[in-house]
Specification:
By secondary structure, this protein is an alpha+beta fold. Helices cover about 20% and strands about 25% of the residues. The protein has 11 helices and 29 strands. The chain starts with 16 loop residues before the first helix and ends in a 38-residue tail after the last helix.
């Protein structure tokens, strides 16, 4: 029975046979909750079975996230536009015109598999409270629409038929149900009966009944909960749901957004951010292919190179990657997004042996690419090659028995006690990333605690213990350990300046050294702030590197040619050819009025001053940069395309911090 135009004056559960059965199940679920209060991971009644489920989930590595519902009719963000850009009364009646006759579960699953995905996660219920399945416990569901079909059921069946994992997204927060507190913008979607007050206990029963219904009817491999941020939800409520679901399905995998503090769950969730390398605790990064989670006609679609780079950083860090698309009101995925998924899938499916069923490491991921491993095999996924065609890694503790390019063709490996060099011919590199498979004389356990130079060059990581100052701060101190000391960055950003003219950070290496290259990790591309999509990477489009011997006189050494998730900046020698310039201070900043947020900065070079990389890199000056796909086209090894001379800028090390 769908809500009517007068739904605000009607009780949430009409007094009918439907209501009586729903109320009975809700009471049963509530009793289960009351008997299982608790807050820690010991609530798992079958930890061995959970490990089986987690191992299976980890091996899949790549998933397709789908945010969909009646809001697709507006092209605005799911849930967050309710009561803000769309009046709640209008939002709550969008379902009446929701008729996605172009929906095909087979087409969605076919596309997911073509994109190289191994599981699919569907939004059963987002924060707006609309139920995208045929539920007994709310009339506000997909069967009340003109479509009157159960897309969740069709997808679950198709995923099983084609061997794709199936997962259920369910939001704890519900802006439609009046029992949920606090109410969201625009208030709840209907009123409680006269004299009845909101009850989180009653809402808890409603949630538990729906979660159990999804588990029984659709048999998902995992539950992806969300919306646990409100204090009224509390730890005991989430713990109770966790135990109830685990008791019913021991191998079920549940994320960490059920309890509020995000301490309970089988895997950690990073939203539009990449977690630190972690082979002990399972984790997943969620990201959008377009600008927002749900359908946005005309929204820009990310370049496949950027998506692949992000995906490799996650997989190489031993995480899973869940990439989101938002189908339109007709039930079809936008052609632009579908084409980009197919483009990504051509690479993933061709290199799948180095992705699916692997674990991260042994090298930490970064601007250079990432590594994965499986048994005695190590896979090096290299995003860009030096002009001399030779990529250099720190040494492996195992002997290399053989090496091959997954895409085919020759590869030459030179192994020393402390080094490993991979050399390819001057032509034929994969335009997105080249994967080298190494067969070793035994497995490599754990990551190697050293950084890989993003340009594939020899040299020392100079900045790990550098001093760090920012021209300003936005609300919190700079995380020096995150931005300088970690092998990879561990959060969305580690430093954030205030809005100012030419914001910057300065790294003090402690003494004069030869700086040859700088790797920089940017903040994630997009985030939604107050229902508006923010492109943080675009704020770094004028990113520049200056060098100084004394911290007073500066000269520009490199500038970005556009916004990117990562940069590997080559610092040309002051005179002659090759790389390397003597400096003690390295400044990274913008040439405009803006915010600057970065996730990680690494400086590579020679601890000895005035020792440029002349001998090892002489070939770089002889070969034009266009010989190697992926290398910055603006780069010239002799530095003649870069401005010279002293650049008078204020020393940011003497500027005072100021909070927002």
């Amino acid at each position: 029975m769908p809500p009517s135009a007068q739904h605000a004056q009607r009780p949430p559960y009409p007094l009918s046979a439907w209501h009586r059965s729903a109320r009975a199940a809700t009471v049963t679920a509530l009793l289960l909750w009351c008997g299982h209060a608790g807050t820690d991971a010991s609530l798992d009644p079958h930890p061995d079975s959970t490990e089986v489920g987690v191992s299976r989930w980890r091996a899949q590595r790549l998933g397709l996230f789908i945010h969909w519902g009646p809001v697709s009719r507006t092209g605005q963000e799911i849930s967050w536009s309710r009561g803000t850009s769309i009046p709640s009364a209008d939002y709550d009646t969008l379902y009446r015109g929701f008729d996605p006759t172009g929906f095909s579960a087979r087409a969605w699953v076919d596309l997911a598999k073509a994109a190289g995905m191994r599981y699919l996660t569907l939004t059963f219920k987002h924060h707006d409270g609309f139920c995208l399945w045929d539920t007994r416990y709310s009339p506000y569901n997909v069967m009340a629409t003109p479509f009157a079909r159960d897309p969740a059921g069709e997808l679950a069946e198709e995923c099983r038929r084609q061997g794709l994992g199936f997962q259920a997204y369910y939001s704890v927060a519900d802006r439609y149900q009046p029992d949920y507190l606090p109410a969201g913008p625009g208030g709840p979607g209907f009123a409680l009966p006269a004299g009845q007050t909101p009850s989180m206990d009653r809402y808890q029963g409603y949630l538990a009944a729906q979660a159990s219904e999804i588990l029984d009817r659709y048999r998902p491999d995992a539950f992806w909960f969300d919306g646990d941020w409100d204090a009224t939800w509390g730890g005991e409520r989430g713990a109770a749901v966790y135990r109830t679901l685990k008791t019913a399905r021991p191998t079920l995998v549940i994320n960490d957004r059920l309890q509020g503090a995000r301490g309970l769950g089988d895997f950690r969730t990073w939203e539009r951010a990449i977690g630190a390398f972690d082979a002990g605790s399972p984790w997943e990064t969620t990201a959008t292919l377009a600008e927002q989670w749900s359908y946005q006609p005309g929204g820009s679609v990310r370049a496949v190179k950027d998506v692949l780079q992000e995906m490799l950083a996650v997989i190489g860090g031993d995480g899973n990657y869940l990439l989101d698309v938002g189908p339109g009101p007709d039930g079809k995925i936008r052609p632009e997004e579908a084409a980009r998924l197919m483009e990504l899938g051509r690479w993933v499916n061709a290199h799948g042996e180095g992705i699916h069923g692997t674990r991260g490491g042994p090298y930490y991921p970064g601007a250079w690419g990432a590594s994965t491993q499986s048994g005695n095999r190590v896979f090096l996924h290299i995003l860009a090659w030096p002009p001399d065609g030779r990529f250099r890694f720190p040494g492996l503790p195992r002997r290399v028995l053989s090496a091959r390019r997954i895409s085919g063709g020759s590869v030459e490996v030179t192994q020393g006690p402390d080094s490993l060099a991979i050399e390819l011919p001057s032509t034929g590199c994969d335009s997105l990333a080249e994967t080298i498979a190494l067969e070793l004389d035994g497995p490599v356990s754990g990551p190697l605690a050293t950084a890989v130079n993003g340009l594939g060059l020899p040299g020392t990581w100079l900045s790990r213990t550098a001093g760090l100052r920012a021209s300003s701060m936005y609300g919190a101190p700079v995380d020096s350990a995150g931005i300088l000391g970690a092998e990879i960055y561990a959060r969305d950003f580690s430093m954030h300046t205030a809005l100012e003219d030419s914001p910057s950070i300065v790294l003090d290496l402690g003494r004069l050294m030869t700086v040859a290259s700088v790797d920089i990790a940017n903040r994630s591309a997009h985030a939604t702030v107050n229902s508006q999509v923010q492109d943080f990477q675009a704020r770094a489009r004028t990113l520049t590197i200056w060098l100084s011997r004394d911290g007073l006189a500066w000269e520009e050494a490199w500038r970005a040619d556009g916004a990117r998730p990562y940069w590997s900046a080559a610092i040309p020698a002051q005179k002659g050819t090759g790389l390397g310039r003597t400096a003690r201070f390295v400044k990274v900043g913008l040439r405009e009025r803006n915010w600057l947020h970065l996730a990680n900065v690494k400086v590579f070079g020679n601890p000895e001053p005035d020792r440029p990389y002349a001998a090892a890199l002489r070939a770089m000056a002889a070969k034009p940069a266009t010989n190697r796909t992926g290398y910055p086209a603006s780069y010239r090894a002799d530095g003649r395309n870069l401005p010279r001379g002293k650049i008078p800028v204020a020393d940011p090390m003497v500027k005072k911090y100021h909070p927002r």
